[in-house]
Protein backbone atom coordinates (compact mmCIF):
# COMPACT_ATOMS: atom_id res chain seq x y z
CA UNK A 1 0.00 0.00 0.00
CA UNK A 2 1.21 3.55 -0.67
CA UNK A 3 2.17 5.65 2.36
CA UNK A 4 -0.36 8.00 3.93
CA UNK A 5 -0.30 11.69 2.97
CA UNK A 6 2.60 13.60 4.52
CA UNK A 7 1.85 14.79 8.07
CA UNK A 8 1.54 18.52 8.80
CA UNK A 9 4.53 20.27 10.43
CA UNK A 10 5.00 19.44 14.11
CA UNK A 11 6.42 21.63 16.90
CA UNK A 12 9.72 19.78 16.49
CA UNK A 13 10.07 21.06 12.94
CA UNK A 14 11.16 24.50 11.73
CA UNK A 15 9.36 25.03 8.41
CA UNK A 16 11.17 27.35 6.01
CA UNK A 17 8.31 27.67 3.56
CA UNK A 18 10.27 25.86 0.87
CA UNK A 19 8.34 23.25 -1.09
CA UNK A 20 8.93 20.83 -3.95
CA UNK A 21 7.90 23.65 -6.27
CA UNK A 22 10.84 25.82 -5.18
CA UNK A 23 13.50 23.21 -5.97
CA UNK A 24 15.77 23.43 -9.01
CA UNK A 25 14.64 19.98 -10.15
CA UNK A 26 11.32 18.14 -10.51
CA UNK A 27 10.27 16.16 -7.43
CA UNK A 28 8.19 13.09 -8.19
CA UNK A 29 6.92 14.38 -11.54
CA UNK A 30 4.54 12.51 -13.83
CA UNK A 31 7.58 10.82 -15.34
CA UNK A 32 7.87 8.75 -12.15
CA UNK A 33 5.62 5.66 -12.00
CA UNK A 34 2.34 6.54 -10.28
CA UNK A 35 2.72 3.76 -7.70
CA UNK A 36 6.06 5.21 -6.56
CA UNK A 37 5.16 8.91 -6.44
CA UNK A 38 3.69 8.72 -2.90
CA UNK A 39 6.94 7.21 -1.65
CA UNK A 40 8.96 9.95 -3.35
CA UNK A 41 6.66 12.54 -1.76
CA UNK A 42 7.19 10.95 1.66
CA UNK A 43 10.96 11.03 1.18
CA UNK A 44 10.85 14.67 0.10
CA UNK A 45 8.73 15.66 3.12
CA UNK A 46 11.19 13.91 5.44
CA UNK A 47 14.23 15.47 3.75
CA UNK A 48 12.65 18.92 3.71
CA UNK A 49 11.84 18.72 7.43
CA UNK A 50 15.36 17.79 8.51
CA UNK A 51 16.98 20.25 6.08
CA UNK A 52 14.85 23.06 7.50
CA UNK A 53 15.98 22.20 11.03
CA UNK A 54 19.61 22.35 9.93
CA UNK A 55 19.01 25.76 8.32
CA UNK A 56 16.85 27.33 11.07
CA UNK A 57 18.69 30.50 12.20
CA UNK A 58 16.64 30.72 15.39
CA UNK A 59 17.82 27.32 16.70
CA UNK A 60 21.11 26.74 18.50
CA UNK A 61 23.48 24.07 17.24
CA UNK A 62 22.67 21.88 20.24
CA UNK A 63 18.92 22.21 19.64
CA UNK A 64 19.31 21.36 15.96
CA UNK A 65 21.31 18.24 16.76
CA UNK A 66 18.85 17.16 19.45
CA UNK A 67 15.91 17.42 17.05
CA UNK A 68 17.82 15.64 14.30
CA UNK A 69 18.73 12.88 16.75
CA UNK A 70 15.00 12.47 17.34
CA UNK A 71 14.36 12.16 13.62
CA UNK A 72 17.08 9.53 13.34
CA UNK A 73 15.64 7.52 16.22
CA UNK A 74 12.20 7.59 14.58
CA UNK A 75 13.58 6.72 11.14
CA UNK A 76 15.55 3.73 12.38
CA UNK A 77 12.78 2.43 14.64
CA UNK A 78 14.32 3.18 18.02
CA UNK A 79 11.36 5.51 18.57
CA UNK A 80 8.06 4.43 17.05
CA UNK A 81 5.61 6.63 18.94
CA UNK A 82 6.69 10.25 19.43
CA UNK A 83 4.20 12.24 17.32
CA UNK A 84 6.56 15.15 16.71
CA UNK A 85 8.56 12.94 14.37
CA UNK A 86 5.60 11.88 12.24
CA UNK A 87 7.46 12.49 8.96
CA UNK A 88 10.22 10.13 10.06
CA UNK A 89 7.68 7.51 11.13
CA UNK A 90 6.04 7.82 7.69
CA UNK A 91 9.43 7.48 6.04
CA UNK A 92 10.17 4.34 8.06
CA UNK A 93 6.88 2.81 6.96
CA UNK A 94 7.62 3.71 3.33
CA UNK A 95 11.08 2.13 3.51
CA UNK A 96 9.61 -1.02 4.98
CA UNK A 97 7.05 -1.19 2.17
CA UNK A 98 9.61 -0.68 -0.59
CA UNK A 99 12.62 -2.51 0.81
CA UNK A 100 14.88 0.54 0.55
CA UNK A 101 17.43 0.77 3.40
CA UNK A 102 17.30 3.60 5.92
CA UNK A 103 20.98 4.43 5.34
CA UNK A 104 20.14 7.21 2.88
CA UNK A 105 18.00 9.02 5.42
CA UNK A 106 20.56 8.51 8.17
CA UNK A 107 23.24 10.05 5.96
CA UNK A 108 21.06 13.08 5.21
CA UNK A 109 20.58 13.60 8.94
CA UNK A 110 24.37 13.43 9.39
CA UNK A 111 24.78 16.17 6.78
CA UNK A 112 22.39 18.51 8.55
CA UNK A 113 24.05 17.82 11.89
CA UNK A 114 27.27 18.85 10.15
CA UNK A 115 25.56 22.06 9.01
CA UNK A 116 24.81 22.81 12.66
CA UNK A 117 28.49 22.87 13.62
CA UNK A 118 30.48 23.56 10.44
CA UNK A 119 30.19 26.82 8.50
CA UNK A 120 33.33 26.77 6.34
CA UNK A 121 34.88 24.25 3.91
CA UNK A 122 38.63 24.10 3.52
CA UNK A 123 38.80 22.93 -0.09
CA UNK A 124 36.85 21.24 -2.89
CA UNK A 125 37.42 17.76 -1.45
CA UNK A 126 36.02 18.93 1.88
CA UNK A 127 32.95 20.28 0.09
CA UNK A 128 32.53 17.05 -1.90
CA UNK A 129 32.62 15.13 1.38
CA UNK A 130 29.70 17.22 2.57
CA UNK A 131 27.83 16.67 -0.71
CA UNK A 132 28.29 12.92 -0.30
CA UNK A 133 26.07 13.19 2.80
CA UNK A 134 23.79 16.10 1.88
CA UNK A 135 23.02 15.32 -1.76
CA UNK A 136 24.12 11.85 -2.89
CA UNK A 137 21.65 10.01 -0.61
CA UNK A 138 18.75 11.58 -2.52
CA UNK A 139 19.85 10.05 -5.80
CA UNK A 140 20.81 6.77 -4.16
CA UNK A 141 17.36 6.51 -2.60
CA UNK A 142 15.69 7.04 -5.97
CA UNK A 143 17.93 4.49 -7.67
CA UNK A 144 17.20 1.90 -4.99
CA UNK A 145 13.48 2.67 -5.12
CA UNK A 146 13.51 2.04 -8.87
CA UNK A 147 15.50 -1.18 -8.90
CA UNK A 148 19.05 0.03 -9.42
CA UNK A 149 21.39 1.29 -12.12
CA UNK A 150 23.73 -0.47 -14.50
CA UNK A 151 26.45 1.99 -13.48
CA UNK A 152 26.01 1.86 -9.71
CA UNK A 153 25.75 5.11 -7.79
CA UNK A 154 28.63 7.00 -9.45
CA UNK A 155 26.78 9.07 -12.08
CA UNK A 156 23.95 9.80 -9.64
CA UNK A 157 26.40 10.94 -6.96
CA UNK A 158 28.04 13.26 -9.50
CA UNK A 159 24.72 14.78 -10.56
CA UNK A 160 23.58 15.29 -6.98
CA UNK A 161 26.89 16.92 -6.01
CA UNK A 162 26.68 19.27 -9.00
CA UNK A 163 23.11 20.22 -8.10
CA UNK A 164 24.16 20.86 -4.51
CA UNK A 165 27.01 23.16 -5.54
CA UNK A 166 24.72 24.95 -7.99
CA UNK A 167 22.32 25.57 -5.11
CA UNK A 168 25.19 26.78 -2.92
CA UNK A 169 26.15 29.30 -5.61
CA UNK A 170 22.57 30.47 -6.05
CA UNK A 171 22.21 30.99 -2.29
CA UNK A 172 25.77 32.04 -1.43
CA UNK A 173 24.80 35.52 -0.27
CA UNK A 174 21.72 34.46 1.68
CA UNK A 175 23.59 31.59 3.37
CA UNK A 176 26.26 34.04 4.52
CA UNK A 177 23.86 36.73 5.67
CA UNK A 178 21.39 34.51 7.53
CA UNK A 179 23.58 31.62 8.75
CA UNK A 180 27.20 32.86 8.44
CA UNK A 181 27.66 29.75 6.32
CA UNK A 182 30.05 29.72 3.35
CA UNK A 183 30.32 26.68 1.11
CA UNK A 184 32.88 28.23 -1.25
CA UNK A 185 36.24 26.43 -0.80
CA UNK A 186 38.39 28.57 1.48
CA UNK A 187 41.65 27.72 -0.30
CA UNK A 188 40.20 28.98 -3.58
CA UNK A 189 38.96 32.11 -1.81
CA UNK A 190 42.44 32.77 -0.45
CA UNK A 191 44.21 32.10 -3.75
CA UNK A 192 41.84 34.45 -5.60
CA UNK A 193 42.16 37.19 -3.00
CA UNK A 194 38.45 37.00 -2.18
CA UNK A 195 37.12 37.77 1.30
CA UNK A 196 34.13 36.19 2.97
CA UNK A 197 32.76 39.72 3.48
CA UNK A 198 32.60 40.07 -0.32
CA UNK A 199 29.47 37.92 -0.17
CA UNK A 200 27.62 40.81 1.47
CA UNK A 201 28.22 43.14 -1.47
CA UNK A 202 25.57 44.04 -4.09
CA UNK A 203 27.70 42.46 -6.83
CA UNK A 204 30.52 39.95 -6.99
CA UNK A 205 34.04 41.35 -6.93
CA UNK A 206 36.43 40.13 -9.65
CA UNK A 207 38.13 37.93 -7.05
CA UNK A 208 34.87 36.37 -5.88
CA UNK A 209 33.80 35.89 -9.50
CA UNK A 210 36.93 33.81 -10.06
CA UNK A 211 35.95 31.55 -7.16
CA UNK A 212 32.41 31.17 -8.48
CA UNK A 213 33.79 30.25 -11.90
CA UNK A 214 36.14 27.69 -10.33
CA UNK A 215 33.16 26.08 -8.62
CA UNK A 216 31.31 26.01 -11.94
CA UNK A 217 34.30 24.32 -13.55
CA UNK A 218 34.08 21.71 -10.81
CA UNK A 219 30.38 21.26 -11.62
CA UNK A 220 31.16 20.78 -15.30
CA UNK A 221 33.61 18.02 -14.40
CA UNK A 222 30.95 16.35 -12.27
CA UNK A 223 28.43 16.62 -15.10
CA UNK A 224 30.69 14.71 -17.49
CA UNK A 225 30.13 11.69 -15.26
CA UNK A 226 26.50 12.56 -14.54
CA UNK A 227 25.63 12.57 -18.25
CA UNK A 228 25.70 8.75 -18.18
CA UNK A 229 22.97 8.51 -15.54
CA UNK A 230 19.81 8.42 -17.70
CA UNK A 231 20.97 5.54 -19.87
CA UNK A 232 22.15 3.58 -16.85
CA UNK A 233 18.86 3.62 -14.94
CA UNK A 234 17.16 0.23 -15.05
CA UNK A 235 13.77 1.90 -14.75
CA UNK A 236 12.92 3.68 -18.01
CA UNK A 237 10.79 6.33 -16.34
CA UNK A 238 13.51 7.22 -13.82
CA UNK A 239 15.90 7.43 -16.76
CA UNK A 240 13.67 10.07 -18.37
CA UNK A 241 13.28 11.97 -15.09
CA UNK A 242 17.03 12.00 -14.60
CA UNK A 243 17.56 13.16 -18.20
CA UNK A 244 15.42 16.21 -17.42
CA UNK A 245 17.40 16.92 -14.25
CA UNK A 246 20.70 16.56 -16.11
CA UNK A 247 19.48 19.15 -18.62
CA UNK A 248 18.38 21.47 -15.79
CA UNK A 249 21.83 21.22 -14.21
CA UNK A 250 23.66 22.04 -17.45
CA UNK A 251 21.34 24.99 -18.08
CA UNK A 252 21.78 26.42 -14.58
CA UNK A 253 25.56 26.11 -14.86
CA UNK A 254 25.33 28.19 -18.03
CA UNK A 255 23.13 30.79 -16.34
CA UNK A 256 25.44 31.07 -13.34
CA UNK A 257 28.45 31.52 -15.62
CA UNK A 258 26.76 34.56 -17.20
CA UNK A 259 24.85 36.02 -14.25
CA UNK A 260 25.83 37.28 -10.81
CA UNK A 261 24.10 35.48 -7.90
CA UNK A 262 24.83 38.47 -5.66
CA UNK A 263 22.85 40.78 -7.95
CA UNK A 264 19.71 38.63 -7.95
CA UNK A 265 18.47 35.08 -7.75
CA UNK A 266 19.72 33.03 -10.70
CA UNK A 267 17.01 30.55 -11.61
CA UNK A 268 15.06 29.11 -14.51
CA UNK A 269 11.85 30.74 -15.68
CA UNK A 270 8.83 28.49 -16.15
CA UNK A 271 9.43 28.60 -19.88
CA UNK A 272 13.09 27.65 -19.51
CA UNK A 273 12.17 24.81 -17.16
CA UNK A 274 9.65 23.55 -19.72
CA UNK A 275 12.32 23.62 -22.44
CA UNK A 276 14.65 21.62 -20.17
CA UNK A 277 11.89 19.07 -19.59
CA UNK A 278 11.15 18.63 -23.29
CA UNK A 279 14.79 18.54 -24.29
CA UNK A 280 15.68 16.16 -21.48
CA UNK A 281 12.89 13.72 -22.32
CA UNK A 282 13.83 13.81 -26.00
CA UNK A 283 17.47 13.09 -25.26
CA UNK A 284 16.51 10.43 -22.76
CA UNK A 285 14.39 8.63 -25.33
CA UNK A 286 17.11 8.80 -27.96
CA UNK A 287 19.84 7.48 -25.67
CA UNK A 288 17.78 4.53 -24.47
Automatic annotation (TrEMBL):
<protein>
    <submittedName>
        <fullName>Squalene synthase HpnC</fullName>
        <ecNumber>2.5.1.21</ecNumber>
    </submittedName>
</protein>
<dbReference type="InterPro" id="IPR008949">
    <property type="entry name" value="Isoprenoid_synthase_dom_sf"/>
</dbReference>
<keyword id="KW-0808">Transferase</keyword>
<feature type="compositionally biased region" description="Pro residues">
    <location>
        <begin position="1"/>
        <end position="12"/>
    </location>
</feature>
<feature type="region of interest" description="Disordered">
    <location>
        <begin position="1"/>
        <end position="21"/>
    </location>
</feature>
<dbReference type="GO" id="GO:0004311">
    <property type="term" value="F:geranylgeranyl diphosphate synthase activity"/>
</dbReference>
<dbReference type="Pfam" id="PF00494">
    <property type="entry name" value="SQS_PSY"/>
</dbReference>
<dbReference type="InterPro" id="IPR002060">
    <property type="entry name" value="Squ/phyt_synthse"/>
</dbReference>
<dbReference type="InterPro" id="IPR044843">
    <property type="entry name" value="Trans_IPPS_bact-type"/>
</dbReference>
<dbReference type="InterPro" id="IPR017827">
    <property type="entry name" value="HSQ_synthase_HpnC"/>
</dbReference>
<dbReference type="GO" id="GO:0016114">
    <property type="term" value="P:terpenoid biosynthetic process"/>
</dbReference>
<dbReference type="InterPro" id="IPR033904">
    <property type="entry name" value="Trans_IPPS_HH"/>
</dbReference>
<dbReference type="GO" id="GO:0051996">
    <property type="term" value="F:squalene synthase [NAD(P)H] activity"/>
</dbReference>
Amino acid sequence: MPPAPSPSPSPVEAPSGKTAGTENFPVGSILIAKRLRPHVATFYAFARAIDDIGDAPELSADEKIARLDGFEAALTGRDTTTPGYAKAHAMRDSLRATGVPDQHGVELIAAFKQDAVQSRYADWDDLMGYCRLSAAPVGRYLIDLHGGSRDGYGPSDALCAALQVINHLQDCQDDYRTLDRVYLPQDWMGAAGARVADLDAPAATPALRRVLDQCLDGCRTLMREADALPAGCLDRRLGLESAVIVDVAHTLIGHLSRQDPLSGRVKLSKGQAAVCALRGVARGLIRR
